[in-house]
Automatic annotation (TrEMBL):
This is Aspartate carbamoyltransferase. The keyword Cell inner membrane does not apply. HAMAP family: Asp_carb_tr. It catalyses: carbamoyl phosphate + L-aspartate = N-carbamoyl-L-aspartate + phosphate + H(+). Keywords: Pyrimidine biosynthesis, Transferase. It comes from Kandleria vitulina DSM 20405.
């Protein structure tokens, strides 16, 4: 069984195959409606979610499979003190594949070792969110027609933002991608990612404090929410939360074909007046998330060649 805990668990070739499959499903998803019949997806979410959980469930139901899970972690035996590993072993007796979100970094990797079925990390603390990364890569590929030769700006909470960390790792493997990190000093990208990834691979990047000074250079602008749930101090959160707000004035400085992305949920960091701008792609990301998760479920269950491609 193969599990997906980190975006680097997938090779560039495997990512390409997954994106091809997601694109094929998008052409006419009814062709895939019975492929996972009799298969069960378990969703184990120890943190809140709207998109990831519902898109996983929608994906499995769209493939003809079934879904089980707790409405929230408070009604599971975890509240009686059961360990994550015992919980996962139990759930893997009742399902064919598991999607798991947990506030502790590394929890899905520990859980994976006790699971009898493939386990997908649906977000672990400020660490990784590999299926959001697949969603983001599909969106970039569909919008730009490529995953290489891009200048990608990440803006906001680069310290705690797991979607940033995961997408950065994935994009670091494509030729000619340059990175621009826009954040306050307190929310800079963690040093380990700079040293072990960007510096180690001699990748081109810079860190700046304002959006305005780099807006015109960017092909992709990836906005993020300041992650309130990871702060120890409420005052720090309140001081930093509105550092960056993308509005139509700032967009006047941007390229005409900029792609604006956000994993969502947003709080205040993209003004709603931007939603109607043709460059706004964050609602397309939401839609793409369902198809990429269908592709991932099919691949991990070895059902990816059951339907002839269009
Ligand atoms: N993008 C994302 O992970 O959204 P949710 O927290 O709503 O799942």
């Amino acid at each position: 069984k193969k599990s997906i805990i980190d975006p680097m668990d997938l090779s560039v070739e495997e990512i390409s195959d997954l994106l091809d499959l997601a694109n094929d499903i998008m052409k006419d998803r009814t062709r895939y409606q019975d492929v996972a019949k009799h298969k069960i997806l378990a969703t184990l979410f120890f943190e809140p979610s709207t998109r990831t959980r519902l898109s996983f469930e929608s994906a499995m139901l769209s493939l003809g499979g079934s879904v089980l899970g707790f409405p929230n972690a408070n009604v599971s035996s975890a509240t009686k003190g059961e360990s994550v590993t015992d919980t996962i072993w139990t759930v893997s007796c009742y399902s064919d594949i598991i999607a798991m979100r947990h506030p502790k970094e590394g929890a899905p990797r520990v859980a994976m070792r006790r699971s009898k079925v493939p386990l997908i990390n649906a977000g672990d603390g400020g660490h990784n969110h590999p299926t959001q990364t697949l969603t983001d890569l599909l969106t970039i590929q569909r919008e730009k027609g490529r995953l290489n030769n891009l200048t990608v700006g990440f803006c906001g909470d680069l310290k705690f933002g797991r979607t940033v960390h995961s997408l950065l790792k994935a994009l670091s493997r494509y030729e000619g991608v340059k990175f621009v990190f826009i954040s306050p000093e307190e929310l800079k990208l963690p040093e380990y990612l700079k040293e072990d990834l960007l510096d180690a691979k001699h990748l081109e990047y810079k860190e700046v404090r304002t959006m305005e000074e780099v807006m015109g250079e960017l092909d992709i602008l990836y906005m993020t929410r300041v992650q309130q749930e990871r702060f120890f101090n409420e005052q720090d959160y309140l001081r930093l939360r509105d550092t960056y707000i993308l509005d139509l004035n700032k967009l006047e400085l941007a390229k005409k074909d900029l792609t604006i992305m956000h994993p969502l949920p947003r709080v205040n960091e993209i003004s709603t007046e931007v939603d109607d701008d043709p460059r706004a792609c964050y609602f397309k990301q939401v839609e793409n998330g369902r198809y990429v998760r269908m592709a991932l479920i099919l691949t991990l269950l070895s059902l990816d060649h059951e339907v002839e491609r269009l």
